C-alpha cells in the first residue's frame, strides 16, 4: 500500500515543485500552495460523482461529445471555478506567474488523488505511464489556465473578461483533445506522444512568458 501511495504522490509533487521553483521573482507562501493543492484533492469525488451520473443517464448520445464535455470540460471547469473563487481575489496572488503556481497546485491535487485511486484499482505497474501522461497533462493544463488567469488579474479592466474566458476555454480544448485522442484512435500512442510534446512546448512557453512579463511589470 505504501508503494502505491508513494508512486501516486511522487509525480504530482515533482511537477508542482518544478513549476513552483521556476518562479524567478517572489515565490508563493508554501501554506497557500498546499491549500490550493488540497482544494484540488477535494474536487475529485464531486467530479467523479457527476461523471458517473452523466454516464448513467446517458446525457450525451454522441460518444465524442460525451468524452469532450464529461471529462475535458467538467474537470477544467471545476478547477477554474475553485481558482477563481478562492485564489484569484487573494492578496497573495500578486504577480503574473502566481496564477501558474496556484493553478498547477490545484491541478496536481486533483491529479494526484485521482492517480492514487487509479493505482489502487489497477496496480502499481501503471505508475510510470500515469506519471508521463495523465498527471503531466493535468499539470500542463494548469500552466495554461494559470497563465491566462494571471493575464486577467493584471490586465486593464476592459480586457479581463477575454483573458478569463481563455483561462477556461483553452485548457478545456486541450484536455478534451487529449481525451478524444485516447478514445478515438486504436493506436493512440503514436498520436498522444506528439501531442504531449506540443503540450510541454506550449506550457513551458507560457511559463517563460509569465516570467518575462513579471520582469517588466510595474504593479
TrEMBL record:
It is found in: Cell membrane. The chain crosses the membrane at residues 6-21, 33-54, 66-88, 100-121, 127-149, 161-178, 184-204. Its EC number is 3.4.-.-. One of its GO terms (cellular component) is plasma membrane. Its main location: membrane. Pfam families: PrsW-protease (PF13367). GO terms for molecular function: metallopeptidase activity. It is a multi-pass membrane protein. The keyword Membrane applies. InterPro entries: Peptidase_PrsW_arch/bac, PrsW. Keywords: Cell membrane, Hydrolase, Membrane, Metalloprotease, Protease, Transmembrane, Transmembrane helix. GO terms for biological process: proteolysis. Involved in the degradation of specific anti-sigma factors. Belongs to the protease PrsW family. This is Protease PrsW. It comes from Metabacillus lacus. The gene is prsW.
Amino acid at each position: 500500500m505504501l508503494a502505491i501511495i508513494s508512486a501516486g504522490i511522487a509525480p504530482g509533487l515533482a511537477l508542482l515543485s518544478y513549476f513552483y521553483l521556476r518562479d524567478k521573482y517572489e515565490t508563493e507562501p508554501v501554506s497557500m500552495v498546499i491549500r490550493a493543492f488540497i482544494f484540488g484533492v477535494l474536487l475529485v469525488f464531486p467530479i467523479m460523482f457527476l461523471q458517473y451520473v452523466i454516464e448513467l443517464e446517458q446525457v450525451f448520445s454522441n460518444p465524442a461529445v460525451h468524452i469532450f464535455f464529461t471529462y475535458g470540460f467538467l474537470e477544467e471547469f471545476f478547477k477554474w471555478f475553485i481558482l477563481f473563487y478562492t485564489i484569484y481575489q487573494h492578496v497573495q496572488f500578486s504577480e503574473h506567474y502566481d496564477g501558474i503556481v496556484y493553478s498547477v497546485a490545484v491541478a496536481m491535487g486533483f491529479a494526484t488523488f485521482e492517480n492514487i485511486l487509479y493505482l489502487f484499482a489497477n496496480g502499481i505497474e501503471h505508475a510510470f505511464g500515469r506519471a508521463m501522461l495523465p498527471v503531466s497533462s493535468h499539470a500542463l493544463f494548469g500552466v495554461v489556465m494559470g497563465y491566462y488567469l494571471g493575464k486577467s488579474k493584471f490586465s486593464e479592466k476592459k480586457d479581463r473578461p477575454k483573458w478569463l474566458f481563455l483561462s477556461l476555454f483553452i485548457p478545456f480544448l486541450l484536455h478534451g483533445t487529449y481525451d478524444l485522442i485516447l478514445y478515438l484512435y486504436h493506436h493512440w500512442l503514436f498520436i498522444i506522444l506528439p501531442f504531449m510534446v506540443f503540450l510541454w512546448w506550449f506550457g513551458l512557453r507560457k511559463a517563460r512568458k509569465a516570467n518575462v512579463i513579471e520582469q517588466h511589470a510595474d504593479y
